[in-house]
Amino acid sequence: MSPPVRELDPWTLLLWLGLAAVSLVALYSTTHGPAAEYIGPGVQDNFARQFLWIGVSIAGIAATLLVPVRFLRYAAYPAYAATLVLLVLCLVMGVEVHGTRAWLALGPLRLQVSELAKVGTVLAVAQLLSERHTRAGQDLSFALKAAGLIVAPALLVILQNDLGTALVFFGLVPIMLFWSGLSLSVLLLMVSPAIAGYFALVSTPAALGFAVLFTGGLWAYSGRRSIAALAATFTAGVTALISFVLRKILQPYQVDRLLSFTNPGAEQFRQGVGFHLVQSKAALYSGGIWGTGFMQGPQTQGAYVPEQTTDFIFSVVAEEFGLVGSLVVLGLLAALLLRLIKLGADVKHPFGSIVAAGAVGVYLIHIFINIGMVTGMLPVIGLPLPFLSYGGSAMLANTALLAIVLNTHMRREDLSIYGY
């Protein structure tokens, strides 16, 4: 059954095109402005390559919208298995870039398999959870199976020495399970170690204070001593573990990388691992309210901000277009997330709904960590900003998730006839 064109959501496509346009503007500035003389010839080509990848992604959207929704469900597990095989191949014969073995060479092209693995994982988890008539939060075995599907690629990505991308997978566990029926108290319990870990890096007393307040609050909310006991164990345990690792396990340079975000301007960080954050924050301040103007940023055009086309592309936007431009970009991203949530809520079949939740989860984690890096609120762990940062594999994978959500929403009536 071919869905009418009027069922395709135009607002999602317009938001995607808006973000892609911002990406091209920022990339053109960094590769054709004064900064071009400081960057290598490979980076200078990033604008042209991103333009090409956006064109390929548009074709990919059109192709994905033609795929029957039943095929998406049938292909979920095979696609997941294929990405696991590719992740293993990366460990064996992958190309190493900046210490991370995450790329497979396909002639002149390099494919970052972990980006594609996000798509396969979201599809597989959505298919698994949609096979239940009951909510996943009420079926512990299915919840554990879903978590296992997510953790498996995360562990392979860790072996590739790409902790940042692995965090995206781990972050999907509570998000997708919550959307499928996990209780709020269990969700909070699952995310508490990450919050406690952040506080432990900033200040041990702050982490312990969070552990006490969180445990008490969760006990009052849930009324269950077992939940409160787990909360105390998770938060206090993570705090103790991180303190031990920082003091006894990691080398000094590794500790500096983790802690530099807490005070990047300190003497021990400023000229080393804190340099990125110092320059990025200087670019943010330099932009002011209205920005310094297109290709006029003293920090970004002076090539002081590293990785301007990838991890720190938001610094370019903030400096050249100021607070106003930054809010426009954040507004586009927020509007896209809200739109996808609405599309997922409109789909009554759990497969389409959970796919939308997975896509939102992937984007949200990337946005949260990337903006946190750029503003100095989080350690620099190398995660791109969705649809803005340069990267062919990331653009294709993120757009594929978007197109699949559009497809399941457009064909939501077809989806419902296939049952659970």
Through-space gap between termini: 19 Å
Coarse morphology: globular
Secondary-structure element series = HHHHEEEHHHHHHHHHHHHH
Radius of gyration: 22 Å
Short description:
By secondary structure, the protein is mostly helical.
Q: What are the SSEs and their pairings?
A:
Elements: H1 10-32, H2 41-44, H3 46-65, H4 69-93, E1 95-97, E2 100-106, E3 109-112, H5 113-130, H6 140-159, H7 163-179, H8 184-202, H9 204-222, H10 225-249, H11 252-259, H12 267-270, H13 275-287, H14 313-346, H15 350-374, H16 392-410, H17 412-416
Antiparallel strand pairs: 1-2, 2-3
Give an overview of the whole structure:
The protein is mostly helical. The protein contains 17 helices and three strands. A three-stranded antiparallel sheet has the order 1-2-3. A hairpin with a 2-residue loop joins strand 1 and strand 2. The model has no long low-confidence stretch (mean pLDDT 89).
List the defining traits of the structure above.
about 70% helix, single chain, 17 helices, about 425 residues, mainly alpha
